[in-house]
Amino acid sequence: MTDTNIKAGWIAVDWGTSNMRAWAMSASGTVLAEARSDQGMGQLSPDAFEPALLAAIGDWIAGPTTVIACGMVGSRQGWIEAPYASVPCTTLPERLVIAPTTHPDLTVHVIPGIKQTQPADVMRGEETQISGFLARNPGWDGVICLPGTHTKWVHISADEVVSFQTFMTGELFDTISKQTVLRHAIAADGWDDAAFAEGLDQSLSRPERLAARLFSLRANSLLNGLSGDAARAQLSGLLIGAELVAAKPYWLGQQIAVIGESRLSTLYIKALASQAVPATQVNAAATTLAGLTAAYKRLKG
Amino acid sequence: MTDTNIKAGWIAVDWGTSNMRAWAMSASGTVLAEARSDQGMGQLSPDAFEPALLAAIGDWIAGPTTVIACGMVGSRQGWIEAPYASVPCTTLPERLVIAPTTHPDLTVHVIPGIKQTQPADVMRGEETQISGFLARNPGWDGVICLPGTHTKWVHISADEVVSFQTFMTGELFDTISKQTVLRHAIAADGWDDAAFAEGLDQSLSRPERLAARLFSLRANSLLNGLSGDAARAQLSGLLIGAELVAAKPYWLGQQIAVIGESRLSTLYIKALASQAVPATQVNAAATTLAGLTAAYKRLKG
Description:
- Chains A, B: This is 2-dehydro-3-deoxygalactonokinase.
- Chains A, B: It comes from Yoonia maricola.
- The structure is a homodimer of 301-residue chains.
- The first copy, chain A, has 301 residues and is α/β, with parallel strands linked by helices.
- Chain A has 2 domains: 10-124, Nucleotidyltransferase, domain 5 (2-Layer Sandwich); 167-283, Nucleotidyltransferase, domain 5 (2-Layer Sandwich), CATH 3.30.420.310.
- Helix content of chain A is 37%, strand content 24%.
- Chain A has 9 helices and 15 strands.
- In chain A, a hairpin with a 4-residue loop joins strand 11 and strand 12.
């Protein structure tokens, strides 16, 4: 996984529930190498994080090395809990939390997540993407949408997170399409643009009927030969449409940036365009790295 | 499971996806014995139904015996497909479908389900419960709600099913509470009436915000110590509330009968009462048996 000739100036780590991704960085901020691991937070006890990290990036260490990590690694079930900052707050953390290590040359700083008390909400990892986006777009005000398993809508003003809201849209799509009776109607892959648009339109025009639409996919598959591709795309449209209606206080009249995996971001941008809302697509991995870099620079002053 | 002294006049069978339940009936319609099996349609190939049935009720057979069966046993993946009747239609089927058997004394008649083309919908098993309810309440007009994994709302007029709609509420509750991140927030059991009422009220007053409410359960658990019992009850309230809003064209201004498992039926009756809609609770098993009996009587003439 790693190149033994690489000696990192510092190491950037994005450690989520399912995966870990690390970059060997030069002191000046160039990416020297990249490593990935499927040892996500979800499967690690607190004392298993250091061995998992060293297995992935140990070869990069030559002398005292700083690691900056974001994501679920800082949750209560992670390596060490990095207590949430509270909105309103900057996304560039004032204080990082040092994780316990045994390797003599390793210092691991964990970036805290952000919480909101009312309505209750939390994020871990997205704050670093936002901070990276703001580092590249100084003074930007507006709303950032971060689509994914748990999509976030985040209101940014004067370099601070003012408020945010999480939607379980990605996880609902995954669970409903794979774990319910709809699995018989929905293809594992495949797509149909018109069916996506139809689902979107149904939820946008009559959001209160979402609960009634779901079983129709199964019935339309049984009785009317609705294809697995069309059912898949229509479910996605129904769920993203329902999210858009509920997130309207966020996107209405705002400039929007969408940070996420490319295919999914495109769906959100199409959905927003259907409401005449323009949105800018932003590369997620580059933004995460920019956020980790901003945290490193601040730490090193 | 069975009593070898029982000789059935005929046998009533309710065969669903997960379970099978059978009753030995006297010619005059008295229940002589009951048997259950966990060999549901979901795990049986077509040629495995007869052995599964005989394993449960073979001892009841003394001479030529008629079996009347309803439920998923008649689906395309079942013992034999009993093609759907189309609405508008009576729930007492005009034609039963005979399943292939090898036992010389066994004749198995399967009750067809009901379909609706627009909006597409299907039922299998509920038609028999409705037919049993109507056999006990001749001339009844109104709306029948059958809560369960896939809750049905059914408009009955002049002894016919006029239209119906299925909601995946039970399956969504089960899947969301067990398979998503909310599993960390939701107790496996337990209840909180006030939290149910709060979830119900949230969905009834702002149904378009359902997508936004779900992750709040997780965040309220993390940040505000929302109990697992309260989160469980609130999720139930949110989903039943969303169903009620979408099913309003069914229940508004109608008399309502609720046929289902007792605890779940009580929740629907409470939810309807919150909208000032009175509803009558009906015992599900007795209704199924009454429907199977009505089909037997019609067959025998």
